[in-house]
Amino acid sequence: MEQAVLTCSLVLWFPGACYCLFYLRADLIQLLKGRKLALLTQVCLSLSVCLSVCLFACLSALVVLSFSCLICSICLSLSHCSPHLWHFLFEVPDHYWILFLGRSSDIMLAVPVATLLCIQLGAGEESEGVLTVLRPQLAAFVQDKHFSPAVRANCSSALALITFISCEDMNLTSEIMALMEQLFTPNGTGSADLQSRALVSWCLLLSVLPESRFDTVVERMLPVVVSLLDSSDVSLRIAAGEAVALLYELARGKDEDFEPEIEGELIERLQSLATDSAKYRSKKDKKQQRSCFRDVLRTVEEGECPYETYRFGTELLELDSWTRIKQYGAFREALGSGVNLHLQENTLLREVFSLGPPPTGQLVQKLSKRERRYVNAMADKARTQARSKHRDKRTV
Question: Are the C-beta atoms of 166 and 123 separated by less than 8 Å?
Fold first, then answer.
């Protein structure tokens, strides 16, 4: 770029200077012969004007050349971009641009905001509009190997949760599940974290799939998920175990006698993982793995699902199936510490977990330690005063 600008400047300046000398050659010759002061002044002024014109022309050419190079670079970049970028450049509303025109760090911050937006909007036309706008680019981010595994994992989780909230078209849900399958299948590329997050996202969408599609999905995906139990990453092993339990739960919900051909081999592998004591694994990993696979093993062998309870405010959330557990995990990951407040007030979460309409009265807030001490002290004082009236105050 700098070499082109320098070359253009020399090309424009040199002919201008030559033209000035050629135009004023007669005056210069007369000046050299007669040495007249007035003529010298005229020649200097003429040279100054010509050089100024040349300098202005050079600067104008530099501006035009720089702008042309910028336009060429933009056109070259757009010629290699995906078709989805054209859609966003010309059809996406202004308030969505921040999600897609930044760096990887910007995307990491913006994608969770899109998820929270859909959670706040709930199921309806508005969230469907968000899905329509964001789905093509989120899918492109998930498939783009130039992004880091963390960016792709965040986009896969956001895409799955937004689809879970907004999408009523099961064909579109199946397409997004197929996209997730490309990430965690043995032939898929990516880190273990990306594979485990994609598998968790796939399980979330599987939980809302109609029963008519269970047979084909279980028959096709159960061997794939079982193969992931041999992964060296504990998070991927746990995600695969929970996916196996979810597949069994859904399949037995339709057919109580469900028993795949690989069940004997699967049970042996689950028993090994539930009692794993390898020294090269950390204590934390072994504890997590044993706890998870004991529950998975009970589901596969006995058909029993884990039972978990979470108290929020004055209410109690009961999770008695792998479906509920996977759905709660997705919302808890997106909302963080705010999940309890949303369980109290958010209509969407209360519908998903069958909690009924939000309570109309004021929510009971937990008192701080200092407030509890003050309340207890005042209660003790009032009790002492009340009892002192009935005591015998005579001295012996």
Answer: yes
**Which element (helix H / strand E) includes 312?**
strand 308-312
Q: What pTM was computed for the model? A: 0.67
> Do residues 241 and 225 make contact, with C-beta atoms less than 8 angstroms apart?
no
Burial (CB count <10 Å: 0-12, 13-18, 19+), residue 158? buried
Token pair of 297 as six digits: 């093993």
Q: N- to C-terminal Cα distance for the chain?
A: 108
Distances in Å between the alpha carbon of 287 and those of 79, 192, 196, 276, 292? 52, 19, 18, 9, 9
Angle, helices 234-254/263-274, rounded to nearest 10 degrees: 140
Nearest to 240 by CA among 253, 251, 224, 260: 224
Say how far apart CA 139 and CA 84 lie, in whole Å.
Answer: 10
Q: Are 121 and 130 in contact (CB under 8 A)?
A: yes
Q: 120-150 burial by CB neighbour count: b if 16+ within 10 A, else e?
A: ebebeeebbebbebbbbbbbbbbeeeebebe
Amino acid of residue 242: E
Please report where in the chains the tokens 């005229």 appear, as a residue: 42
Can you tell me the distance from the alpha carbon of 93 to that of 303, in angstroms, rounded to the nearest whole number? 49
In tens, the pLDDT along 92-105 reads 454 455 555 557 77
Is the Cβ–Cβ distance between 105 and 151 less than 8 Å? no
User: Please, are residues 162 and 127 in contact by the beta-carbon 8 Å criterion?
Assistant: yes
Note the pLDDT tens digit of each residue in 163-206.
Answer: 999 888 888 999 999 999 988 877 655 688 899 999 999 999 99
Residue 315 is classified by DSSP as E
Strands 315-319 and 308-312: antiparallel
Structure tokens at 205: 């969408």
Least confident of 32-46, 77-91, 227-241: 77-91
Contact 84, 93 (CB under 8 A): no
Q: Contact at 8 Å (CB) between 175 and 133? A: no
- Specify the residue for token string 């999408």: 167
- Would you say 143 and 184 are in contact if contact means Cβ atoms under 8 Å apart? no
User: Tokens 């049970």, residue?
Assistant: 267
- C-alpha of 147 from chain center: 12
The gap from C-alpha 276 to its chain's centroid, in whole angstroms, comes to 33
